[in-house]
Specification:
With 212 residues, the protein is an all-alpha fold. It has eight helices and no strands. The longest helix is centred in the middle third of the chain and has 25 residues, at 87-111.
Length: 212
Amino acid sequence: MTWIYFLDLFGTCVFAISGVLMAIEKRFDLVGTLIIGFVTAVGGGTLRDLLIGRSPVGWLNDRNYMLAILIGYVIAYVFYKRVLRLKKGMFLFDTLGIGVFTIIGVKIAAEYNLRVETCIMMGVISACFGGVIRDVLTNEIPLIFRKEIYAAACLLGAVIYIIMQQFCPIENVNVMVSMAIVFIVRYLSFKNGWTLNLKKFDDLNGFGSGDK
């Protein structure tokens, strides 16, 4: 067990909480909220493992992931109002979580000797696609398709990690710096309202909608 493993479990718990909170807001029942919390927490990693042929899927070999999800599920229900008041804290934890999942995704893909661009893609999928599945199941536009910089922060962190692997022999340094990049970019973009939208397309909002 390493420190990144414990961060992985922590991120799994936080993602489960975010999924359960959204499901509660959508008035899902107890089973429905558990399912949404589960797919939010491990959906990205599951999709990654299926794509690269990793069998069995990672969380099937480690009951601690299920335990982390159940803890998140209980926290979301028992401390629902308190958690909602900690939106800023939850955002920071979620941002830390996507940083962890990004690097873990890249590392696992690299173990299968996949191409560099594929490893980067697997990092982004690991971090983002649990949220995509959550949003689709709860009838929301996935966060990565909105204006916020989310997947782009993961992409940059994955690229930085790959580059540092070529020049720095200290793995922990590479991991921490890459995770920090994801965290900083995501936090600053949210705080300052940065987006990847091109201004020249702003006037196209509503184009073709039938407005006269």
